[in-house]
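Entry for the shared binder. Reason: the reviewer on the internal report wants the predicted structure included alongside the sequence.
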Amino acid sequence: ICSKKTIEMNIDHKFIEAEFIDRPNRFLTRVRFDGDIIDSHLPDPGRLNELLIPGARLLLKKEFGKNRKTQFSTQAVYAGDTLVSLNTLVPNRFVSYLLKNHSLKFLQEWKFQKQEVIYGNSRFDFQLSKDDVIMVLEVKSVTLVENEIAKFPDAVTERGRRHVKHLAELATEGLDVMVLFVVQRPDAKCFQPQWERDPQFGNALVEAWQNGLQVRVIKMKMTTNSLHYLGEIPYELNPGNT
C-alpha cells in the first residue's frame, strides 16, 4: 500500500564510505578508510552476518562527542546495490517524523502524544491518543531479508519477547497496542517472524496478536541524503507457511 506522494525525511549529515574488515564485538566494526584501518561504533547489535561480510561497502558518520571511544559510527551497508541502514535508532526517528506529519494512513486519526513511555517495567517507543483512547506503539527495526521476505529478529531477543507479551497484557486492560516493524531496506515484499532463530519470539508475537496486539509492517529506502517511505507490506505469522 504505497502512497502516491513521495514521503521523505532528509538526513542532516554527510556519510563517509569505507570497507568492512571485521567485527571484534557486537558494537564495533573495524574498517578500511583512506588507506588506514580504524574502529567504528556499530549502533546495531544484531547478528548481521548476511550483511557484514569482508569487503562490504559501508557508510560511516563522523562523530564529535567528547567522551567517545571511536570517532566514527557505522550507519549503513550496501547489500549489492541496496543500501541497508544499520542504525536501530533510525526507525524511531523516521516513525516519529511520519506520525507528526500524519503520513501513516493506518494511524492518521491518532494524535502523537509522547515518546519513551513507561508502563510497569517496560519502556515503549510512542504513546498516541484518539478522543479518550490511548495507544501504545512499539517500533522494531528489521534488516534481515531472505528471498524478498523480511524477518525479525535476526538474533534471539528476550527484550522483544517481553515487549510483545507486555503489550498483550496492556490490551486486556483496555489500551490499544501496536507493534510496528520497520524494514530498513526496500527489497522486501512481505514479513514473517524469523522462526528458525527465535521461535520463542515468534510464538509470543502470535499469541499477543491473537489477544489484541495490532501488527503492522512498513518499509523504507535509504539514500545518502534521505529516507523514503515506501508504504506497508503484508505479513504472515503462521509458522506453517514459512
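Summary line for the report: The chain has a mean pLDDT of 93.
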